[in-house]
């Protein structure tokens, strides 16, 4: 996953993990963390992953993988205390 800065028109950070297609991203208010929701589809299996990332270190802090038949989305609550994942 690549983070683009539209002001300079280029990539400023890269986040490496076998994520498949990233479906949704949300940042917390402070900009320290963000969450991504992705879809990894194989022959007869579809895995969804919700990953919480540390913005500065580019490392995953939490990784939840589950089997579902639908696309997922994610959001951080306005107070930054909760993470919502929707299937």
Description:
The chain has 87 residues and is mainly beta. The chain has one domain. Helix content is 0%, strand content 57%. It is built from no helices and eight strands. The strands form three sheets. The protein has a four-stranded antiparallel beta sheet with strand order 3-4-5-6, with no helix packed on it. A two-stranded antiparallel sheet has the order 1-2. A hairpin with a 4-residue loop joins strand 1 and strand 2. The chain is globular. The mean pLDDT is 77.
Provide a brief overview of the structure:
The chain is mostly beta strands. It has no helices and eight strands. It has one domain.
List keywords for this structure.
87 residues, mainly beta, two-stranded antiparallel sheet, 57% strand, globular
Biggest sheet record: 4 strands, antiparallel
Q: Cα distance, first to last residue?
A: 21 Å
Tell me what portion of residues adopts beta-strand conformation.
over 45%
- What is the 3D shape? globular
By secondary-structure content and strand pairing, the structural class works out as mainly beta
- What is the H/E string? EEEEEEEE
Rg, nearest Å? 13 Å
Number of strands: 8
Average predicted confidence as pLDDT: 77
Q: Summarize the amount of helix as a percent range.
A: under 10%
Residue runs with pLDDT of under 50 for 5 or more positions: none
User: How do the strands line up in the largest sheet?
Assistant: 3-4-5-6
Tally of separate domains:
1
Please report the number of helical segments.
Answer: 0
């Amino acid at each position: 996953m690549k983070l683009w800065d539209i002001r300079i028109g280029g990539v400023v950070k890269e986040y490496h993990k076998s994520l498949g297609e990233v479906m949704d991203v949300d940042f917390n208010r402070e900009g320290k963390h963000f969450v991504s929701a992705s879809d990894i589809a194989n022959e007869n299996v579809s895995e969804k992953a919700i990953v919480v990332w540390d913005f500065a270190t580019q490392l995953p802090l939490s990784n939840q993988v589950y089997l579902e038949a639908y696309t997922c989305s994610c959001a951080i609550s306005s107070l930054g205390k909760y993470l919502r994942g929707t299937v």
